[in-house]
Amino acid sequence: MTALWIAHVNVTDPEAYGKYAKLAGPAIAAHGGVFLARGARYVQLEGNDRARNVVARFPSLEDAVACYRSAEYQAALEHAKNAAERDLVIVEETPA
């Protein structure tokens, strides 16, 4: 079953976060991830507003978790840790 990686981000250091994004994209793609939304227009209806929202689809929940735990993604994440406030959740898609 496919899974969605959903990140809500408030970027505090655009230069460092840009380094994260440059490395994270290939790491996500290497694990079968495909971006569905990446910084596009949005409407905040509830909860805490974060200016950047990213959604990626992975072949499975396990693939998404493996991506997050991979050396490549963790190397990218080092650039984001002090450059953004982030919430990240991975959820399985509901079958149609």
Automatic annotation (TrEMBL):
TM regions (residue ranges): none
Q: Can you give the residue ranges of the DUF1330 domain?
A: 2-93
Q: Which InterPro entries match?
A: Dimeric_a/b-barrel (IPR011008), DUF1330 (IPR010753)
Superkingdom field? Bacteria
SUPFAM superfamilies recorded: Dimeric alpha+beta barrel (SSF54909)
* Full protein name: DUF1330 domain-containing protein
